[in-house]
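Onboarding guide, step 5: your first structure request.
Type a short instruction followed by the sequence, for example:

Predict the 3D structure of this protein.
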Amino acid sequence: MKLGCIGDDFTGSSDLANTLAKEGMRVVQYTGVPEASAGPEVEAGVIALKSRSIEPEDAVKQSLEALTWLKAQGCSQIFFKYCSTFDSTPEGNIGPVADALAEALNAEQVIVCPAFPGTGRSVYQGHLFVNDRLLNESGMENHPLTPMTDADLRRWLAPQSRYGVGHVPARVVFQGPDAIRAALAQEQAVSRRHIIVDAIRDEDLRAIGGAAAGLPLITGGSGVALGLPANFGCTPRKADWHGKAGQALVLSGSCSVATRGQVAYHAKANPNFEILAKDVINGQVSPQSALDWALDQKGLPLIYSSADPKLVKAVQDQFGRETAAAAIEEFFAELARLAVTHGVTRLITAGGETSGAVVEGLGLRELQIGPEIDPGVPALRAGKDLVVALKSGNFGTEDFFAKADKVLAG
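The system replies with structure tokens like these:
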């Protein structure tokens, strides 16, 4: 294995695996730290953790365990993947995990770049934008778990880390890999270990990738991985894919603006069933009753709990944030288990927490990477009789659910 990757959620990990596979690397996505060694054919291993919203000490522990396994596979470079909207809080775990990995790898120049222009995420002057809006004006300020209230990545990362935070501006990035390498060295010289690097175009990501050759640790969204496979002699190739016929089901637990739009669009022409957290907690709806409804439907049924953030907050205020979140995750995990048991062969999930719950609920250990459905979202083979799509809340076009099912069906 050449490149070892640690993702802080399941949708983001498949997003990263998709980027690497398109650029020609032979990739396998693992759920948690594997027990056995990887096969010799695997060039990039992506370990998907469910650590985005957990306490920093727990996230550090899990990430270091993943690092130990990846180093044992012979990886010469490690990539720490987090969301392209830098989902965190001032007390979050991106900084602590980056600190711990940097110390373990003796990495003194750590690139920090969540940019993903293909999905509208760009970093300019150290600030993170979603399309033409600053991050804290994009809807992410209303995220129920990690509200983003400041677009300045330097200010957001600084309280999380024990080390100085530097910056390589766009005007340097535009000059190419050599200029970027020189700027990284200059930041290191003034004790700035974590270095925000601007990127507004795919060309910038490829230049950053070129500059990262030989660095022990890189951090960012999947976009900055675009330029890494070339450092290992890989060239882009088309995914080998055979879909799966049978029954399909969409499960959505994301409250993002993008997913709520996708839910509304899909519901116009397809059967849909809204799940309210309070009804789950009070026992008024169960995974079995939801599945019974789905199996009676024609078309592509959608079961969702993608409520307006204000409604989500009201439920959190009534029952507690952790109770409300756990209830929905457990509901979708059990629903997915029942669905597969009753013959569902194609599962489409929306939302990082929901996707993580489904993957863990089904006990999926390895995922093979298929073709891209939308930027950042690949089709995934979970087994002989199951294919899945794990969509980050903010990703995908309005008609994503129908599009994903078409790709999964092959």
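Each response can be followed by summary notes, for example: Residues 262 and 399 are 6 Å apart (CA to CA).
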